[in-house]
Amino acid sequence: TAICSVPTEPIEGQKTGTSGLRKKVKIFKQENYLANWIQALFDSLPPEDFKNGLLVLGGDGRYFNQEAAQIIIKIAAGNGVGKILVGKEGITSTPAVSAVIRKRKANGGFIMSASHNPGGPEYDWGIKFNYNSGQPAPESITDKIYGNTLSLGFRYHKVMLSILSNAGGFVITNLNGGIAIQISEIKKADIPDVDLSRLGVTEYGNFSVEVIDPVSDYLELMEDVFDFQLIKSLLSRSDFRFMFDAMHAVTGAYAKPIFVDKLGANPDSITNGVPLEDFGHGHPDPNLTYAKDLVDVMFGENGPDFGAASDGKGGVVVGGLGGRSTTRLGPDKLVASGGATVAASGGATLALTGGCIRSLGGTVGKCSTEVPKEEEDGGSIGDDGSERGVGGLDEVPCGGDGDRNMILGRDFFVTPSDSVAIIAANAQAAIPYFQSGPKGLARSMPTSGALDRVAKKLNLPFFEVPTGWKFFGNLMDAGKLSICGEESFGTGSDHIREKDGIWAVLAWLSLIAYRNKDKKPGEKLISVSDIVMEHWATYGRNFFSRYDYEECESEGANKMIGYLRDLVSKSKAGEKYGNYILQFVDDFTYTDPVDGSVASKQGIRFVFTDGSRIIFRLSGTGSAGATVRIYVEQFEPDVSKHDMDAQTALKPLIDLALSVSKLKEFTGREKPTVIT
Ligand code: VG1
Ligand code: CO
């Protein structure tokens, strides 16, 4: 294959956030923008990590993926990669890419997704690089890539600034991890566009591309991890109704082969939709028929027993209820009523109820427990802050890469922090993969302490890492960690190195199936809510909520964080904050126990003597403005208070968080855009 050298110049601002590089599509379409980053990546890796090697390429089917896939393939070939495995049509969920990398012993892989950020020409695109055990590239690599994308002058300037502000040379190595290679040329193979619509291998001299089925390796892995017979016995019961409504055909690509074909779920329990061919139409007409359907199910007398959603590819789950409906997700319940909006989680999500989820295809907002009043009539909340008449399904911009999950019982919402704790507490009995017990447990710092209590009781090693899945990988590779999760609808284990939506659904089905395996027909089944309440009775309940203030002015948001950092340095243990007594306050720093790398400034924590916590951080996944996240948590051992509404239980802490941070003053925001 002939290789051409395309001259290029450094581009500023290509720093990856919590999970890959995410920008508006328009930015990615600028000349060489994506190509520069990909080339900088190859410049950052040791040659033995890719020369004549094997890489995987997948994505969530969003706008620009087709074009991007061709660019990535050509540059990979130009840099001497031997072979690329690419999902049909460029589609493979994030967890499936991780699974394929591991199974095929690839050197790594690319995921073309901005996850929960909406897709379409006006919205976001994104790229992640995962390394050879399937884990998101650690910061040592992403920092190096960033260094290589920059001009020497800019880099020098940054380093000087860092030296001044950090009083040390630490950042020089952190930024560049060695000698930076200023980007000046892109190496591209001169090959035609690859036909991604047909399975099979195409050879181009010493380079080849294989288009693979995105489901089969992943499905095989799921069969190894879980007892499919056990799950099947539950799904085939007439007294258990399951719902995974993935209107979007691509989500169905995983849901149908797994839940229906393998596990015997009723085909009606999954609604496959029409593929999103035209995402990007941000203002679809209200679809009240559909909304009505949804509302009916939500308030239905006889809802399903279990419902779940994952932000599948190409658009996934959304709770857009028709241009004029409001979704209210009570702490434990989702209630929807007539207006516009959105309970979307994980970039996608749902509107569900009675234990059922509707995936309406496309990303709209996130999972809200409450939609601000003003929004009730009409507009909806978009991830990008734009107003959208939701309503809809097949025209809502798409997004979602299959790594998140939401679990529901009948009239019951399982908060992700509880979900991971409950899976961990029951995994050994119900899931063959964990038959000798989990090796260790971990959660991201803002995730509630429910999991800590399980680790303590089971006497397991426990880790608290910064937000983002990349920090779990080292612990897993070192054999210290089996089950982990984040409050942001991410749950997973060391079967791969990403969070995994379908895995979480199968884990919950396993738990329920195990608890009910001896129930005779007609006997009352142990439900999702029974399992959760029982867990609380044993361990206590960690009330938890997250408030998001999306797309604030960066200046105000940064000032607020600066103000809080200042408070950190001034506050002392024992100080009174309302009825709470301060135990400590810090800006979370994590030292990786495996490689000793340090991640600092990961979120400001106020921890009180009764275990309550308030945490502040800025989102690292947005593509415009600054999103402030406030996390509040309070532990309640008293069973008689366990069925309290989380918002009620947490009100004093939320008020305290707002006054301590002077959020309103700094950001001008009266109300959060999203509450989960
Ligand atoms: C958010 C979540 C974080 C998650 C990340 C990627 O990050 O809070 O828990 O790991 O998204 O998820 P941030 O920096 O915006 O808070 V995904 O599904 O978008 O890859
Ligand atoms: Co995602």
Straight-line distance between termini: 52 Å
Number of domains: 4
Strand order of the largest sheet: 2-6-5-3-4-9-8
| Mean pLDDT reading | 80
> DSSP helix count?
19
Explained architecture:
There is one protein chain. β28 and β29 (613-618) form a beta hairpin. Helix content is 31%, strand content 22%. The chain has four domains: 3-212, 3-Layer(aba) Sandwich (Alpha-D-Glucose-1,6-Bisphosphate, Chain A, domain 3); 241-373 and 388-414, no CATH class; 416-527, Alpha-D-Glucose-1,6-Bisphosphate, Chain A, domain 3; 540-675, Alpha-D-phosphohexomutase, C-terminal domain (TATA-Binding Protein, 2-Layer Sandwich), CATH 3.30.310.50. Mean pLDDT is 80; it is low at 163-177, 272-296 and 312-399. With 676 residues, it is of the alpha+beta class. The structure holds alpha-D-glucose-1-phosphate-6-vanadate and cobalt (II) ion. Alpha-D-glucose-1-phosphate-6-vanadate binds next to loops.
Summarize the structure.
The chain has 676 residues and is α+β, with helices and mostly antiparallel strands. Helices cover 31% and strands 22% of the residues.
